[in-house]
Structures are given as structure tokens and as C-alpha cells.
Design goal:
The protein has 486 residues and is of the alpha+beta class. It is 27% helix and 19% strand. It has helices spanning 8-17, 26-39, 43-56, 58-63, 75-89, 92-96, 164-172, 275-285, 290-301, 344-353, 375-383, 450-467, and strands at 133-144, 153-161, 175-177, 180-181, 183-191, 207-210, 213-215, 237-238, 249-257, 263-272, 287-288, 313-317, 330-333, 342-343, 371-374, 389-393, 398-400, 415-417, 482-484. The strands form six sheets. It has a four-stranded antiparallel sheet, covered by helices on one side. The chain has a four-stranded antiparallel sheet with strand order 2-9-6-7, with no helix packed on it. The longest helix is centred in the last third of the chain and has 18 residues, at 450-467. The protein is elongated, with a radius of gyration of 41 Å.
Length: 486
Amino acid sequence: NMVMSFRVSDLQMLLGFVGRSKSGLKHELVTRALQLVQFDCSPEVFKKIKELYETRYAKKSSEVAQPQPQQHRSPEALSIHSSYDRGSTVARTSIATTNIDYPALYGKYLNGLGRLPPKVAKPEVRLVKLPFYTTLDELLKPTELVPQNNEKLQESPCIFALTPRQVELIRNSRELQPGVKSVQVVLRICYTDTSSPQEDQYPPNIAVKVNHSYCSVPGYYPSNKPGVEPKRPCRPINLTHLMYLSAATNRITVTWGNYGKSYSVGLYLVRQMTSAELLQRLKTIGIKHPELCKALVKEKLRLDPDSEIATTGVRVSLICPLVKMRLSVPCRAETCAHLQCFDAVFYLQMNEKKPTWMCPVCDKPAPYDQLIIDGLLSKILTECEDADEIEYLVDGSWCPIRAEKERSCSPQCPILVLGSSDVNGLLPTPNGNGENGKPTADVVDLTLDSSSSEEEEEEDEEEDDDDEGPQPKRRCSYEKGLVSAC
């Protein structure tokens, strides 16, 4: 239409008017201008397009003394041109509410993703920022998947082309692993909900076809609990390896199940980060000064007048709750109420494999942009190498807590037998009687094996049988006659 008829200078003036980049070849300028008309076309932009168009064809217009009304225009231009003329004679609000059915401009973007709605000021679908993905370009804003019929299985195609600069970024990026570039074109899908930023969410029966090949979509996590449906990790889908890295157009077809819920899709050029890169960034901008951490400790231990219990200290373990190893980079979320830290190295590695971003201490959200490195605990770790736990005191100081040696009550502890120097397991007097003719208590040495005690008991019984004398009554060996040397 009018934008397609613009020269390079007209396109540059239009893009400069809205603050967009004016550099590049004509087809790149046309692409940007069409995106502008398609997504960000305000009344001022309409007016500027009309002004440039009228200037472009001013000579043709001057040849006609009085241009006839809009019914003399070509039918194909009527739908969009008439809206400009109405906008010049009525209030600005009427332009925003004019029901314009936009054509599929330049054959570049939406083609089966649903017709563009009337250009009204309404909130857009936003996706949450992902720590492991840095967005370089937005190739397609989140656009609703609109069913074309009443079938349960729907197909929504999308056609787009990469600019030479974007192709160069992909080709020159390093490889994260064989065949996987760090700069990628990814597809993200979420619920059509404008109330808040949305997390990635796949529709049922999803399948993604890039040009002539199907792209792999993350599968389901196996569930070990009976009766619990397996969960599917909804992540950005990497399309790069199946795309034409040239000026050729790429066709993406999303197959999805239409079961009542509304979904939106977006295309982005991103740079995928590793856990090591996120850790380095956290060490650069996320370290909390030791004095600030000390002030936080004092705040936690400050006497509460409403509390009947005075807290004199709080213990903090130097062992990571994730891997049960000594902390190397003590970390916690700024929103967490506890002083206990976990290891940032393992926390980032675990979320790189399976992103949950939940604090392992309090089980509350701990997103990457809320993480801090505890400068005070980092200092303690270097100074206290022989303890696995410390205690913070009310004044902000700390002291190590070393494990107490367990008291041993092992058989190595000697047994003192009162009134006798014999060390046999069963210690009767020769006549079987003690002083004053009273029977003497038998003493059992617990340090001897039960087998040897049984043998000695059998021998004593045989001797007693031979003597045919009365047997002394046995008493509990634990009530009397033993004193521990411990």
C-alpha cells in the first residue's frame, strides 16, 4: 500500500520520526516500517505516513484541480486510505477506535496466527524475563493463536526473514555444545493474559515445524508418584538449526490443541547464557558489603519488647543445604527472612538443568535478580576453616561452634571390683561365704565375652554339684559391687 510505495528517503524519514534505526538496505527499512504500521501505529504515525505519501505524489495531485472524494480511489486502497481521510476531519479519538481490517502486509509476519484486531489502546501480552536468555531482538511480538475452524487440532503458520545483521550474529556466536549456537532464534508460548508477565506454557498437542522439518519440543518429566501426571518443562524452543541463515524467508507452523484456553506466541533473537556466566555476573554486581550484612544480623537479633523470649544468638551452618558440602559462594535471596545461605554455584547449575528458582532453605521464590552474595559469611568462611557452624551474637560478632567430642562409655573403661582382686568373670570366695559367714555377692565382669561367662558358669555349677553344698542366691550384678572409672 502506501508504505510499500515509499522510497528509501521516505522510509528513513518515517523511521526517524518514531526513533527507529534508519540504517540498512531498502528491504530492511520496509520491514521495520511494516512492523511499525502493524504493531505501533498511533494517530501521529498515520498522519506522518499520509503526509509522506501526499508529498511523494504531490505532482500528480496538482494536475487535478479539485480531487474527487474517496469513492474515486481504487477499491484495494479504499480500506486503509479512507481511514486516513476520516482521521483528518474528526477528533483524534475516533481514529483510535476506527475498526480497520489490516491486510497481511508484505507477506512477512502473521499469516494464520489470526487477523490483527482493531488498532485500539489495549495492554499487550508480556513474557517473564529468563535469566539464562538475553533478548537481542524481538522478531514477533506475542500474538494470539486464533483457531481457524471448530477442529480440535489447529495449525498456525508464520513467515519471516532474518536481516543480514541477525544472520551474522548467529554465525559468529560461539557454540555451547556441538551444533548449538549461543545466539538463537527461539519460539516462546504462553497464556494470553495481559494482567502480568506470563511464564512459558505449552498448549496441548504442540508440534513446531520449521520450513520442512519438525523441531524437537521438551518432553515430560517422569513422575514417581502414583496418580500424579508428569510435568512438562516449558522452555523457549530453539529453532536456529532448522532455519535458513540467509535472506530467504522461513516458514514456521505451530500445531496446537484447541481446548478452550487462549495462547500467544512470540519469536525472539536471544543469547543463551551459562551458569558460569551468571555466576560471574552475580559476583560482579551482587555482593553485599560485610557491614550491611552485619547490620542485618543486629536487626534480626534486636530485642523485641513484645516478645517474652530474648534471642541472644542465631546459628548458621557453613554447609550448603543443597549438596551437603562446605559453602564456597554463600548466597541467598534478598527477599528471604533467614540468614542461612546456600551455594550459588550449585544453585545456578541446578536451575540451568531444571529451572525452579526456589530457595532450598525456606522453599520460597528466589529469582536470579533477587540473589545476593553474603559478604560477611564469605569473610567468615576464609577465617574459620575448622568449623562447620557459627553463631551470630547480638552485637553482630560471631564465634565458631566446634563439634564436642562424644564421651565414650566403651568396654575399654576398666571395671573396679570392690572387695576382691580377682578379675575372673564370676568371682566367688573359696568357701562361698564372706565375712560373718554370710554369702558373698557374685560379680560379673561385663568386659568378657558372653561365651566365656557361660563356660565359667557351667564350670562353677559342676563344682557346686561336686561339693553338694547349698548354692548361694544370685543377685543382680548391676545393683552392687561395680564402680565405673570414667
